[in-house]
Amino acid sequence: MKQPLFVKNIPIDEKRISFLEKIVSRLIRRQQKVASAIISPYPISNCVMGEGVKGEVLRYMFACGGEISKGGIALDVKPKHNAMVVLTIKNDSGGNSRSYTVDKKSLVFESNIKVKQFDKLTVTFYPVDEDKIKEVWISLLWIPVVKDAKIKNFLIDELDKEGLIE
Length: 166
Known about the structure:
Blueprint: H1 14-31, E1 42-49, E2 55-61, E3 66-75, E4 83-91, E5 94-102, E6 106-115, E7 120-126, E8 135-144, H2 156-161
Antiparallel strand pairs: 1-8, 2-7, 3-6, 3-8, 4-5, 4-7
């Protein structure tokens, strides 16, 4: 049978006080658990095929702000001469661009480019004319700002039951 916490007109004894302190200390420990959430990046990619591929290989407009964390480019053949890939961001206040040298068949690059809502991305591929590139794959990882991400709330106990908290 459940025992009432405080019975009227009866003083609280030491046993009851120690029991309450034990419960409070357990609750405090539970409050100190921290849960981390993963905001997965969104892939942005495209492939262009044809004879002598060059020029724009990808265009994209961002619905909300965020960051392009990294990217990669894959070609059908290793370029004989260094090719170049240029990421250009355009917006109402101007824009900026970053270029990367492509000297192998595939390349991964860190970009860390901040983007705002309605920024427009253009990726341009510039091979040396002698190189006949027939296939260009481009992929970027974009991480939206947290305020625009969908946030789900879970009780710590639910996460603990699922084994998601260590």
